[in-house]
UniProtKB/TrEMBL annotation:
Pfam families noted in UniProt: Aminotran_3
Signal sequence interval, chain numbering: none
CDD domains associated with the record: OAT_like
Protein name: Acetylornithine aminotransferase
Name of the encoding gene: argD
Organism of origin: Paenibacillus silagei
Subunit architecture: Homodimer.
Keyword Amino-acid biosynthesis in record: yes
Note from the entry: May also have succinyldiaminopimelate aminotransferase activity, thus carrying out the corresponding step in lysine biosynthesis.
């Protein structure tokens, strides 16, 4: 893997000097506050280049990427086949509006439906929009097709479904809702794995139950088979739709193309984003054929959903994933990663549990892990949290055993060092 070229380094050095000098590059004006809203607590890194499992910052420092843009770059950075398809499409056609037929959408929809239990597809731009579409489809199906007064969606504590007003209300975490009152009506949240609480929450107004197979943002909590079987039974008993949020777990991440395939169930609706387009903004909502009538012309739309550009990238991403059997590879590499972590960390009581599916791995610790995340960056390893006490590992699906070994060696050293520090402070 090559480092940044000298030309690239010179260009980046000049940009840094200009930034530090001020707006005109002559040192005449003090640096200004960014014009970007400060809604992100950003790490002190600017990444400018990526290839495969590696990224580089402005100074040319190299990092092993075990966060993949939060489970987005599942084929690694700058995958060649996807890039070639995008470049070809850029020279052909960018945008025409969904008032016209877009052949690429039909090809992507065929790839998705032929490899899932879904029959229909709606294209949008993000996971939040995909989940918003799922909520709207569930309501409209019950109200316009079935003629009932059903609109409520039940979700679970520690879940995460997005940042729109509807999807943050559906999210089972209070922190994302602060300052956004009043929240939309029509949502209930119950504890995960509490079937009786779920049963008690169902009323004549309940339209759907919505959940993730692995609560990724909520701490890498894997849904139990027995509980999910109970959810499916309740949906059948009460005529409810089952919505599975596969925004982070879909597209091979957990060792199956879609995480719900581990459980032998067929949701009425499921959603995708993140890994579906290798970093290009894209989201997908998929549903059963009997829901088709609910989304009649004019009922829902997206200006940029499934543009020729987005469709080209999704098609190349999905084809690559299927041709190279990446879900199967994720299962294999996930077993290897989990095994190496357990072998290296079994001697520290600082680690509470290692859990997950495929290449979606969580390391739950007895103390907050933010300091470990920052220490990892200094050692050239990028990973992220899933809540205050959980380290989340999201390598790309092509990750090699050598890359896993490098990451585990660094991470285990960091965890042992931090555990010793915490223990020493407690004893002092």
């Amino acid at each position: 893997m090559s480092e940044l070229t000298q030309t690239e380094k010179d260009s980046l050095t000049g940009a840094l000097q200009e930034r530090s000098a001020g707006t005109d590059g002559q040192g005449a004006a003090p640096a200004k506050l960014s014009a970007v809203f400060p809604s992100y607590a950003r790490y002190d890194l600017s990444l400018v280049k990526g290839k495969g499992s590696w990224v580089w910052d402005e100074q040319g420092n190299k990092y092993l990427d075990f966060m993949c843009g939060l489970a987005v770059t599942s084929l690694g950075h700058a995958p060649e086949k996807v890039g070639a398809k995008l470049k070809e499409q850029i020279d052909t056609l960018w945008h025409v509006s969904n008032l016209f037929h877009i052949p690429g959408q039909d090809r992507v929809a065929a790839l998705l439906t032929e490899n899932s239990c879904a029959d229909q597809v709606f294209f949008c731009n993000s996971g939040a929009e995909a989940n918003e579409a799922a909520i709207k489809l569930a309501r409209r199906y019950h109200q316009k097709v079935k003629g009932t007064d059903r609109y409520e969606v039940i979700t679970f504590e520690q879940s995460f479904h997005g940042r729109t007003l509807a999807t943050l209300t559906a999210t089972g975490q209070a922190k994302v809702k602060e300052g956004f009152l009043p929240l939309p009506a029509g949502f209930k949240t119950v504890p995960l794995h509490d079937l009786e609480a779920l049963r008690a929450a169902i009323t004549e107004h309940t339209a759907a139950i919505m959940l993730e197979m692995v609560l990724a943002e909520g701490g890498i909590i894997v849904v139990e088979q027995e509980f999910l079987d109970g959810v499916v039974a309740l949906c059948k008993e009460h005529g409810l739709l089952l919505i599975v949020d596969e925004v982070q777990t879909g597209m091979g991440r957990t060792g199956k193309l879609f995480a719900h395939q581990h459980y032998g169930i067929e949701p009425d609706i499921f959603t995708l984003a993140k890994g579906v387009a290798s970093g290009f903004p894209a989201g997908v909502m998929l549903g059963k054929g009997y829901l088709r009538e609910a989304f009649s012309p004019g009922s829902h739309a997206s200006t940029f959903g499934g543009t020729p550009l987005a469709a080209a990238v999704m098609e190349a991403t999905i084809e690559t994933m299927l041709e190279d059997k990446l879900p199967e590879r994720a299962a294999e590499m996930g077993e290897y990663l989990s095994g190496q972590l357990r072998a290296k960390l079994e001697d520290t009581s600082f680690v509470k549990e290692i859990r997950g599916k495929g290449l979606l791995i969580g390391i739950e610790c007895h103390e907050p892990v933010a300091e470990i995340v920052l220490a990892g960056q200094k050692r050239g390893l990028l990973f992220v949290q899933a809540g205050p006490d959980v380290i989340r590992l999201l390598p790309n699906l092509y990750v090699s055993t050598d890359e896993i070994d490098q990451a585990v060696d660094i991470l285990s050293e960091l965890i042992h060092t931090y555990a010793n520090k915490v223990s020493g402070e407690a004893n002092s």
